[in-house]
Amino acid sequence: MTRPMARIVILYAILLAAGAFALEWLQYNYFAKAYPFEIYVTLIALGFAILGFWVGHRLTAQKPAGPFEQNRAALKSLGISDRELEVLEALAQGQSNKQIARTLGISPNTVKTHVASLYAKLQVNGRVRAIEEARSLHLIP
Fold first, then answer.
1. Which residues contact 59 (CB under 8 A, 6 or more apart)?
2. Rounded Cα–Cα distance for residues 93 and 15 (Å)
3. Which end of the chain has fewer CB atoms at under 10 Å, N or C?
4. How far is CA 128 from CA 71, 88, 92, 132, 134, in A?
5. Contacts 24+ apart (CB under 8 A), 18-23
6. What is the pLDDT of residues 95-134, one digit of tens each?
7. What is the C-alpha to C-alpha distance for residues 111 and 79, in angstroms, rounded to an integer?
8. How far apart are CA 122 and CA 140, in angstroms?
9. What does the DSSP 8-state code read for residue 70?
10. Which residues contact 83 (CB under 8 A, 6 or more apart)?
11. Cα(14)–Cα(78) distance, rounded to whole angstroms?
12. What is the mean pLDDT of residues 44-63?
């Protein structure tokens, strides 16, 4: 777990503990009897929903602010050709092999060959993993 993520998790735990303490301090039994059960459950659900949205926002990765810069060194070291890069970009757009073949003006079998080559070069075994790996290496936006 990374250090910033650990801080957020610890802060989340502290907030949960503070919420539990607040419930005890406000005499849980009094609130449960004084107000209808539905209002009590709604308030608790709303509190956890707000806390969950905040934690989710903090833990999700933010896209870099600057423009995308392709990692040419990684392309060269992996031996990915320009045509394979075009196939990889089309994969990232969600195109099927037939769509890629039509777009690039090549046969579907050639696309399969390029995809298999990309899997081997990126050391993955599926489209999703290939796209994730390519994005983590800054080969595609």
1. 5, 8
2. 40
3. N
4. 20, 11, 8, 6, 10
5. 19/47
6. 999 999 999 999 999 999 999 999 999 999 999 999 999 9
7. 17
8. 13
9. -
10. 104, 114
11. 46
12. 85
